[in-house]
TrEMBL record, chains A, B:
InterPro entries: ArsR-like_HTH, HTH_ArsR_DNA-bd_dom, WH-like_DNA-bd_sf, WH_DNA-bd_sf. NCBIfam families: HTH_metalloreg. CDD domains: HTH_ARSR. Residues 109-151 are annotated as: Disordered. Signal peptide: none annotated. It comes from Bradyrhizobium vignae. One of its GO terms (molecular function) is DNA-binding transcription factor activity. Pfam families: HTH_20. This is Helix-turn-helix transcriptional regulator. It comes from the Bacteria.
Length: 151, 151
DNA sequence: CTGATACTTAACCATGTGGTTTAGTATAGA
DNA sequence: TCTATACTAAACCACATGGTTAAGTATCAG
């Protein structure tokens, strides 16, 4: 039943797992619509390589392409991203919960400084993620208000 | 500079792109700690196959394994998930923004019926996506923008 | 018509992924 | 000590991925 969603998630996460593709999406996020060659220009790989990435993104439903004359412009679509977000959100509090227990010995690592946290979009989302956002980065942080799910 | 993060995202998204691995994570979310064989039991694949999945998850930093005697238990860690969330969040409104412009002709597609909308997490997100959420699943069957490759 | 531009297809290659079976190591228990 | 249990390692396979080069096809500009 939830199978279609499942496959959509597969493709979405798989599509997002490549830095080139994430960069492509990011550019489309800023420019809203770019031709294939404009899109490909900044990357050090061949056009066909970019084409394949665009195929993957199209396949995942993350972008659409429309041809006008001989040029093809790409634009973002959002639904799959949403699904991905939903999946992550669904388990978010479980993770934060576990994180608290693990925090002790996982808190080393090589993290770069808080990277801009650029958008206000964060504000909406933060309502859902604050509970762990705090504990995860600023560890220490006593038990977050997040509810204890199991047991 | 942001390179480490980048690779971490690669691995995180890649790890999440497999349904078996998502299911493993989900179970760990509910049980908090399970042995390798307990973890593997419900799945129709061989133990070594599960082992490989666990390798991938470990590699992505999504779980940790600790050995006690001859059994190995797995637990979740949360940071990579957070990063993934952050990445998605960062672009969330760009997408919804673009989606609004696209809504018109993207509203076909083959999406399954509104599937349970399981968590309240959705409510927060909806603030960002509502505007298109409605129009997006109208499903009207116009011209499928899905690529017409040949000819 | 000619040629450049914009994209697509095809063929190929190296590597990675998800799975198998088979064999191994290590610990718990009789 | 012997054996079952719990996990790991190795070798192999089919197929997907990310890249290449080279050869199309289609459209716009002269």
């Amino acid at each position: 039943m939830v199978k279609y969603q499942d496959e959509a998630l597969d493709r979405t996460f798989a599509a997002l797992s490549d830095p080139t593709r994430r960069a492509l999406l990011a550019r489309l996020g800023e420019q809203r619509s770019l031709s294939v060659s404009e899109l490909a220009a900044p990357f050090p790989v061949s056009l066909p390589a970019i084409m394949k990435h665009l195929d993957v993104l199209t396949d995942a439903g993350l972008i659409v392409r429309e041809k006008t004359g001989r040029t093809v412009v790409c634009r973002l679509t959002a639904r799959p991203m949403e699904q991905a977000m939903n999946w992550l959100n669904r388990y978010a509090q479980f993770w934060s919960d576990n994180l608290d227990r693990l925090a002790a010995f996982v808190e080393e690592e090589t993290w770069p400084p808080p990277p801009s946290t650029p958008l206000n979009a964060r504000q909406q989302i933060d309502q859902a993620s604050r509970s762990r956002a705090g504990s995860a980065r600023g560890r220490k942080k006593s038990s977050p208000p997040g509810r204890k799910p199991s047991s």
